[in-house]
């Protein structure tokens, strides 16, 4: 089994580590526009050797784990360079534009559009870890456009890694993910900004961070290089989520100003059922 | 050493557990308006016996760990019932109103106003854990108003529990904590609300929650009984933080609408320094 990982950061590097554990005989090749990262991935034995696009035709599997702006630029070239039996898998956090980009590509059947919902706030090859994807959801889009034998090859990997598979169309994916992921990141970044702007004394932030701030602001450590193109590609959905979020905050503020603490209580009480949702226990629908 | 814990939930129960470890000979008495919680605390051996206010005069130390609305009502009565050598310690998340409430109380010198910055999103006696306060900050207000010998007694406990002490005036405390804690809770509650309202299918939320939503929404599991009175008492500061937060979100949205992704990038990049702040590594001030 010959595998190429294009983009040897947290996401690609963690794939490579799991693949090594699952298929010890696999040869893992790495490609990265950042030569320092590529060398680091080699030194950390995340990949076995460096590659360039000329070598892609020899690969059984190509994982494309690069920021989504680079993804839409590179994916057509990667498919051009791939062999007839190569399955090319992406891991982009947006799915509409990437699917549109290769819609009419002659090797569309070699491509499987994926979004493994996993990550940490860290990045780069040194952030790659074993088991990052275990128990996590992998959303696959337009599965019917991928050759069946190549789907099978990819699914063997995902199942071996312990991922849960969900199928979704790219438009629905981008809408849902705007709420559940993209909005979380913006709320966290803007929370961090608001606190940093106000707290001139950083020591005060640090001392008080145990009060819930630390977990809520965790995503504000995320990479702007990764997130700017995501927000750009999913702009319409993200703006919609932001408008609804701001409206809910305005309403909460108004309840405070009105001194209507029964409504303040109810707002929080109604949202408490997020506990059950995150436990995966469906509530009784009325 | 005789200790009373008034309010045997997460905060008071965790104090009781640490005290048992630190001072094995201590007798821990419990008071709670919720008889089920009180019995649970006894069954879990968090407390050794039940007490009422009549017994407070015999106590060396009284920890008052109840919601802040109950705190301002009960604290004068608790001080009335306490002995001359009893140190009464609160753990309220707001400090101005509680300090005002007992400002002219004849036993003001018996009271130490504290806010241990620790907690989890869980509540009740069964949520109490050993070591909750280790390495956490305890903010003490108006320390000069507490009798020195009683300060010493309290500090011996806090140091034994491994807490870091910070002194602050109540007005500054309430302003800082509004940014670093109270705003985090509202941002999390409203994020949860926005996502629940939109995602009719709770399965979708659950499947995608690994994308950062889970940690950002963690605080939305918090108890409305605890948080409504905090927001009520700290309303002015909380409204101010909300206005600044909403303004930052509006601006971010505008950058998206304008297609100004350089500014979107910069907003995130500037906030990334929260990483250094939370590591406690002070940045070079220019």
UniProtKB/TrEMBL annotation, chains A, B:
Pfam families: PDH_C, PDH_N. Residues 1-286 form the Prephenate/arogenate dehydrogenase domain. Keywords: Oxidoreductase. It comes from the Bacteria. GO terms for biological process: tyrosine biosynthetic process. GO terms for molecular function: NAD+ binding; prephenate dehydrogenase (NAD+) activity; prephenate dehydrogenase (NADP+) activity. InterPro entries: 6-PGluconate_DH-like_C_sf, NAD(P)-bd_dom_sf, PDH_C, PDH_N, Preph/Arog_dehydrog, Prephen_DH. NCBIfam families: PRK08507.1. This is Prephenate dehydrogenase. It comes from Flagellimonas meridianipacifica.
